[in-house]
Design a protein that fits this description.
CATH superfamily of the largest domain: Tetracycline Repressor, domain 2
Protein name: Helix-turn-helix transcriptional regulator
GO molecular function, one term: DNA-binding transcription factor activity
Largest sheet: none
InterPro entries: DNA-bd_HTH_TetR-type_CS, Homeodomain-like_sf, HTH-type_TetR-like_transc_reg, HTH_TetR, Tet_transcr_reg_TetR-rel_C_sf, TetR_SbtR-like_C
CATH topology of the largest domain: Tetracycline Repressor, domain 2
Helix content: over 70%
Number of domains: 2
Number of strands: 0
Order of helices and strands: HHHHHHHHHH
Distance between the termini: 64 Å
Keywords: DNA-binding, Transcription, Transcription regulation
CATH architecture of the largest domain: Orthogonal Bundle
Length: 193
């Protein structure tokens, strides 16, 4: 006979689900409406009490950081799936996903930059994991000749960061078509001549 978990396990699972719900809601609200939404309003939209949000995220900056880290973790999961394929275009797929995620979360990333948060410092393991996956896919792309031979992982990561700035400069954060076009222009520059 299997028993349902009780006590702390249930609370931890519930707390994890509530935290995930708050993160998803916050990401959507910040992307659609900006950063002016209060933590209490995010709680209401997530269907949890204000205390739940404040317990997990005592400040808006903590929530911004958590949203950004969560996005990177999701990109790592997608990178892991792409690494298991034999697709020579997997690097371009991942970079497109990274640029779209960055465009969608440009407001949050700007807020973090303004408070001098650096994700590479705040979440070094997650950031390094994503870079490691980009490096692996870049190596595969080099092997099959899908990218320029002189391209390094550091340059790829710099170009992704530059794409965020280009999308923001063009005011294309809220236009998936325009941000995808800008991203594609950058990605085309990675291909062999």
């Amino acid at each position: 006979m299997t028993r349902e978990p009780t006590g702390d396990r249930t609370l931890r699972a519930d707390a994890r689900r509530n935290r995930d719900r708050v993160l998803r809601t916050a990401q959507q609200v910040f992307a659609a409406e900006g950063l002016g939404i209060s933590l209490d309003e995010i709680a209401r939209r997530a269907g949890v009490g204000p205390g739940t949000v404040h317990r997990h995220f005592p400040t808006k900056e903590a929530l911004y950081l958590a949203v950004s880290i969560d996005q990177i973790k999701r990109l790592v999961t997608q990178a892991e799936a792409l690494a298991k394929t034999n697709d020579p275009e997997a690097l371009f797929t991942l970079l497109s996903l990274m640029m779209a995620s960055g465009a969608e979360n440009a407001t949050v990333k700007s807020a973090l930059a303004a408070t001098e948060f650096d994700l590479r410092i705040a979440a070094p393991d997650v950031a390094a994991d994503l870079t490691r996956h980009v490096a692996g896919l870049l190596d595969r792309a080099h092997t099959v000749g899908a990218v320029r031979a002189d391209l390094s992982v550091g340059e790829v990561m710099a170009l992704v960061a530059g794409a965020f700035a280009a999308i923001r400069h063009a005011g294309a954060e809220t236009s998936p078509d325009r941000s995808a076009h800008i991203s594609q222009l950058i990605l085309d520059g990675l291909r062999p001549r």
